[in-house]
Design goal:
It is built from 14 helices and no strands. The N and C termini lie far apart (99 Å). The protein is elongated and about 75 Å long. By secondary structure, it is mainly alpha-helical. The relative contact order is 0.06. Helix content is 74%, strand content 0%.
């Protein structure tokens, strides 16, 4: 019976060498693929950005940008690159804006690849400051930035989806902020999004119903009140106004 580990190909020492060799091979293969990716794709990024800038400046070839970035092969090779990933957010916003009939889209406002990224990065920072009260009057700064940049509802919803730690709470805070400044359409859309996140909340649906009543949409207001899962006396007054 052999007890000598030196002659045992399954000894711990031999197994360690085999495992290390296999690991080394995997590392080398990974490095080889990465170097090949740099040659085939990473080095082309400046050229891609230049082409995007040309399309943005023409103000008429936006669909070319969407087509390029939505191509499955393109996404596979570039969606994990930081600057590309950031620009995908701008594309998503543009598509949402077009779908909702917005004419002054993000691509109309920012005519370069990096301007789009800078705008969304600053908006993200402003939203974080407001969410965590990092600086005094953070919500006012956020509101002012939204006004100065004519930020669309679609942009806000997209950012709430992707950057907020508590999107429901932040959405409610934004809705109240817009109400404070009499920006009622924005307030309504924020409440609407909050209802999508957490359906059936009485206070949210009552706010939506109240805004509808302000413009004499009683039937719509009544429909929102019917969605309340656990109604209390809070909604009774609104129901009576709907019936008046």
């Amino acid at each position: 019976m052999m007890n000598d580990n030196k002659n045992n190909i399954f000894s711990n020492e031999s197994a360690g060498v085999w495992i290390n060799s296999e690991t080394q091979n995997k590392v080398e293969e990974k490095e080889r693929k990465y170097k090949q990716w740099i040659v085939n794709y990473r080095n082309k990024i400046p050229m891609i950005i230049k082409q995007v800038d040309e399309w943005l400046k023409r103000q008429e070839d936006f669909e070319n940008i969407v087509e390029m970035f939505m191509d499955e092969s393109f996404k596979k090779n570039y969606s994990n690159v930081n600057e590309m990933l950031a620009f995908y957010r701008a594309i998503n916003i543009y598509m949402q804006e077009i779908g909702n009939g917005v004419k002054d889209t993000i691509f109309h406002k920012y005519d370069s690849f990096y301007k789009n990224i800078e705008y969304l990065t600053e908006l993200k920072l402003q939203m974080w400051r407001a969410e965590f009260n990092i600086i005094p009057h953070a919500q006012d700064y956020l509101y002012n930035y939204i006004e100065e940049t004519n930020t669309s509802i679609q942009t806000l919803v997209c950012m709430l989806c992707s950057v907020s730690m508590n999107s429901y709470e932040v959405t409610i805070n934004l809705a109240n902020l817009f109400l404070k400044h009499e920006k009622k359409v924005y307030a309504f859309e924020m409440f609407k999004y909050a209802n999508e996140i957490k359906p059936g909340e009485e206070i949210v649906l009552c706010c939506m119903a109240r805004l509808c009543l302000d413009i004499q949409l009683k039937e719509v207001a009544r429909d929102y009140l019917k969605q309340i899962l656990h109604p209390t006396k809070i909604s009774e007054t609104l129901r009576s106004l709907c019936e008046a």
